[in-house]
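Q: Could you fold this chain for me?
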Amino acid sequence: QVQLVESGGGLVQPGGSLRLSCEVSGSIRSVNAMGWYRQVPEKERESVAVITDRVSINYADSVKGRFIVSRNNAKDMVYLQMNSLKPEDRAVYYCYVHRRFGPVEAPQEIDYWGQGTQVTVSS
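A: Sure. Below is the predicted structure, expressed as structure tokens.
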């Protein structure tokens, strides 16, 4: 099992910055991907920024150049630094972890989600 606890959401003006944090605990040795998704009402949850195998980072086109995802392995934390925020960035942001474990020929894969933190960008 993996537990995720997020913090750092809130209200910010357009052009402002926020930093989201996520504390990861539990069976973290088999985690091969972690990052952030977001969701707005009546839309599917979308990937924002995900680190895979500790080296590969994928950003949504809409946040490239503005958001930075990072992890601190010593503290088992993952962060999302959000700069130049826009009203369309308003969403509930979810911390995400993907585990892969078991035999190579037939691995088990499980996704875990945090409880979500609201980010509102408004003047």
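A (continued): The longest strand covers residues 91-101.
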